[in-house]
Write a structure and sequence with these properties.
Helix 3 crosses helix 5 and helix 5 runs parallel beside helix 8. This protein folds into two domains: 190 residues, no CATH class; 122 residues. It has 314 residues and is mainly alpha-helical. 9% of the residues are buried. Helix content is 76%, strand content 0%. The radius of gyration is 32 Å and the shape is globular. It contains 15 helices and no strands.
């Protein structure tokens, strides 16, 4: 790709700033625009086993580990500024990943407890859960839009002088847990066919939206609504084409390869089982002959002589 397009679509400032090997290996200093999330995700995969092991080791006292973690995540969300998302290390974004992992632990532990105790939601439980859910939604929307309930309750936030990533991980992850344990209208909204389709093509949207929003006829439109509708429509169209021509066929190929590898694994397993079965049959026949010989040795001399004579007569 010529440097002109690297600068235009991936915000590479100088030609020497781009290193293909370091970019493809997700080096933290070579996260050009879209690729800023991948090094963070891959780095967290090395931390996740330690988190899971810690939860397993605490056993029935797992909640004692999650309580201080939630305090830390909330503190970091309130007092740590995340703005230069392309350059910031994992430490600035670690609370987001930890919040998601803790939400998964909460769901698994609650489901295990509900099955063990036979707990069923009653009206009072459902009402309490919906109140908590409504508060989480109100807080989430207020933080994202920097207003709403902050303004309505008389505690307006200071005007934003620059872009800051809002602290939403705890609220959003807990909302997902609540909807998983006791679905409501919120779940039905997210199951709307339009949102499901957008979720299906979302990876193509993520990869290709830069090729729409940074082309000159779109980027320099003065009317906000004209620009937004143009970007939305063209991105959806481009992502749809990419999904049906590239992504979906790739998924089919991956499924076929998975089935082939599964059949090969089953075939190898069956061969191993057959070999073990033959070995067992051979061992049993050998043991039978050994038992016969042992019986012969245990016979008295007269019994052995009579058996020998009967064999010769046959």
């Amino acid at each position: 790709m010529p440097f002109e397009y690297k600068h235009k679509f991936y915000k590479v400032n100088k030609p020497e700033d781009f290193n293909l090997f370091l970019t493809l290996t997700f080096h933290p200093e070579h996260r050009h625009f879209l690729m800023w999330t991948l090094p963070l995700e891959i780095s967290y995969y090395f931390i996740l086993p330690a988190f899971v092991l810690g939860v397993l080791k605490t056993g029935r006292y797992w909640w004692m580990a999650l309580a201080p973690l939630y305090v830390w995540v909330i503190h970091e969300g309130l007092y740590t500024t995340r703005d230069n998302y392309i350059r910031q290390p994992l430490t600035n974004h670690l609370p987001t990943f930890i919040a998601g992992s803790m939400a998964a632990v909460l769901f698994v532990k609650f489901e295990a407890w509900r099955k063990a105790t036979g707990f069923e939601f009653r009206t009072v439980h459902t009402v309490a859960l919906r109140v908590v859910e409504a508060l989480l939604i109100a807080a989430y929307l207020s933080v994202v839009f920097r207003g709403l309930f902050f303004n309505w309750l008389g505690y307006p936030l200071p005007p934003a002088t620059r872009y800051i990533m809002p602290f939403t991980s705890v609220k959003l992850s807990l909302l997902i847990v609540i909807e998983m344990v006791q679905p409501s209208t919120v779940s039905q909204i997210f199951e709307w066919v339009v949102l499901r389709y957008l979720g299906k093509i979302s990876f193509s949207v993520y990869l290709l939206h830069v090729f729409v929003i940074y082309i000159e006829p779109i980027q320099f439109q003065t009317n906000y609504y004209d620009r937004t509708i143009s970007e939305f429509g063209l991105v959806i169209l481009l992502a749809t084409v990419s999904y049906h021509l590239v992504e979906y066929p790739s998924q089919l190929v991956a499924q076929r390869l998975s089935r082939v590898f599964t059949r090969l694994a089953m075939y190898d397993h069956q061969k191993l089982v057959n070999v073990e079965a033959k070995d067992e049959e051979g061992g049993s026949s050998t043991s039978d002959s050994d038992d016969t010989n042992d019986d012969d040795l245990c016979d008295s001399p007269s019994d052995a002589r009579s058996r020998l004579m009967s064999k010769h007569s046959i």
